């Protein structure tokens, strides 16, 4: 297998549609999900540690490779020094919106499982991921362009 570094998701997605590559590891998108649903592209697995509501019935790579988990996440950040009461109000509003079934369903249709968390949980997630990604970057001698 040969690694082909594409510059972003759009060229990667086009490469699988054009038959330039036989397999790809990428995040989901509305376009890609449409082709998965139509059968033009086959989903081989999800990179979450267990089953995903984004791809019901898809195999979890983590179930075959013990400890494997690479999940994309989105965080909403505020400037340093934002008052705690403002952060709490924003977080509560976000939690309310993400709990709405129509919002959850819309995100799922785009291939995203929307989950609310607290500022402390997001901070802990970021802190936990830094060492593992640092190790990958250093071991593979990854350089930015």
From TrEMBL:
State if Lyase is listed as a keyword.
Answer: no
- Domain of life from the UniProt record: Bacteria
Tagged with keyword DNA repair: no
Instruction: Provide this UniProt record's keywords sorted from A to Z.
Output: Receptor
State the family named in the UniProt similarity comment for this chain: Belongs to the UPF0065 (bug) family.
**The protein, known as:** Tripartite tricarboxylate transporter family receptor
Query: What organism does the record attribute this protein to?
Result: Bradyrhizobium yuanmingense
């Amino acid at each position: 297998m040969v690694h082909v570094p594409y510059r972003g998701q759009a060229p990667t997605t086009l490469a699988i549609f054009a038959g330039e590559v036989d397999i790809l590891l990428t995040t989901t998108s509305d376009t890609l999900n449409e082709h998965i649903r139509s059968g033009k592209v086959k989903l081989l697995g999800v990179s979450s540690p267990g089953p995903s509501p984004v791809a019901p019935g898809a195999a979890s790579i983590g179930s075959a490779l013990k400890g494997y988990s690479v999940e994309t996440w989105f965080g909403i950040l505020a400037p340093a020094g934002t008052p705690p009461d403002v952060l709490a109000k924003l977080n509560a509003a976000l939690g309310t919106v993400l709990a709405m079934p129509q919002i959850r369903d819309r995100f799922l249709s785009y291939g995203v499982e929307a989950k609310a968390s607290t500022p402390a949980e997001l901070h802990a997630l970021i802190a936990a991921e830094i060492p593992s990604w640092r190790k990958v970057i250093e071991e593979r001698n990854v350089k930015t362009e």
